[in-house]
């Protein structure tokens, strides 16, 4: 029986990738006089991957990668005013409205009192805490966990600290890499709700998915019904073995 549900935040509860893509589009436009936009994007993506271990996930890490890439691609010719524009992109991202995905509020409210609800998300601490507060959903979650990455060890450590039985836990998120695979690997439950776009860093080698039965929903609106069916199936199994 599921007793605890963990929700990813970005692109599961609210739109986030749209904000990043908009900033990257402006960035490519800024550097268009120096290089082809596709080449700029390729080099920026490489810098992001390279810098995650130093700066982590989130807006601040992206901004530092933008500045580094701009300096490299212009061989130091980037202007101070252009660097200031990049910082402006970051400010716009941090101040962007928290736009909930359709059906999120209703889905979360319907689960309150039935399950222990928590948020488990990657990213910058200040940015994520601010978005949770501005989302209007904060009061529904018993615990918020903001982590540097989502790995098997991170989930196991969380279960230990929060006294969560792994077989009673469900993770809900849009990323197979972060929200589904590591959770299934430790014997817990996961539901994948794909977002409209997928960040390149979250793409998964299909080989890793071979043989796994991954539960997938088209919308978070379907989560309540999915949980009800799972509870009925679990109750039926217990009755048959009694």
Note down, in words, how this protein is organized.
- The protein is of the alpha/beta class and 242 residues long.
- The chain has 2 domains: 4-15 and 99-241, HAD superfamily/HAD-like (Rossmann fold); 17-95, Putative phosphatase, domain 2 (DNA polymerase, domain 1, Orthogonal Bundle).
- It is 52% helix and 11% strand.
- The protein contains 10 helices and 6 strands, in the order E-H-H-H-H-H-E-H-E-H-E-H-E-H-E-H.
- It has helices at 17-30, 37-55, 59-73, 80-95, 104-111, 125-135, 152-161, 176-185, 206-209, 223-241; strands spanning 4-7, 116-122, 143-147, 169-173, 189-192, 215-216.
- The chain has a 6-stranded parallel sheet, with helices on both faces.
- Strand 2 (116-122), helix 6 (125-135) and strand 3 (143-147) form a beta-alpha-beta unit.
- Helix 1 packs antiparallel against helix 4 (80-95), helix 2 (37-55) crosses helix 3 and helix 3 (59-73) runs antiparallel to helix 4.
- The radius of gyration is 20 Å and the shape is elongated.
- The two termini are 16 Å apart.
- The mean pLDDT is 91.
Number of separate structural domains: 2
Q: Any idea of the CATH topology of the largest domain? A: Rossmann fold
Secondary structure category: alpha/beta
Provide the spatial order of strands within the biggest beta sheet. Answer: 3-2-1-4-5-6
The number of helices is 10
């Amino acid at each position: 029986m599921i007793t605890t549900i963990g929700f990813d935040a970005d692109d599961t509860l609210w739109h986030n990738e749209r904000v990043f893509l908009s900033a990257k589009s402006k960035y490519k436009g800024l550097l268009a006089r120096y290089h082809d936009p596709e080449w700029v994007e390729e080099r920026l993506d490489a810098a992001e991957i390279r810098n995650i271990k130093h700066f982590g996930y989130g807006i601040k890490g992206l901004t530092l990668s933008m500045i580094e890439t701009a300096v490299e691609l212009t061989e130091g010719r980037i202007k101070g005013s252009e660097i200031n524009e990049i910082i402006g992109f970051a400010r716009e991202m941090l101040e962007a409205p928290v736009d909930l995905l359709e059906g999120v509020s209703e889905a979360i409210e319907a689960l309150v009192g039935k399950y222990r609800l928590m948020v488990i998300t990657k990213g910058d601490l200040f940015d994520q805490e601010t978005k949770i507060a501005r989302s209007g959903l904060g009061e529904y979650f018993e615990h918020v966990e903001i982590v540097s990455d989502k790995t098997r060890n991170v989930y196991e450590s969380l279960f230990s600290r929060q006294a969560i039985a792994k077989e009673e836990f469900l993770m809900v998120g849009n990323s197979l890499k972060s929200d589904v695979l590591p959770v299934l690997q430790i014997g817990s439950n996961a539901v994948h709700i794909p977002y409209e776009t997928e960040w390149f860093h979250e793409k998964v080698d299909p080989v890793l998915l071979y043989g796994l039965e991954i539960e997938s929903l088209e919308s978070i609106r379907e989560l309540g019904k999915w949980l009800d069916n799972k509870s009925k199936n679990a109750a039926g199994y217990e009755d048959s073995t009694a």
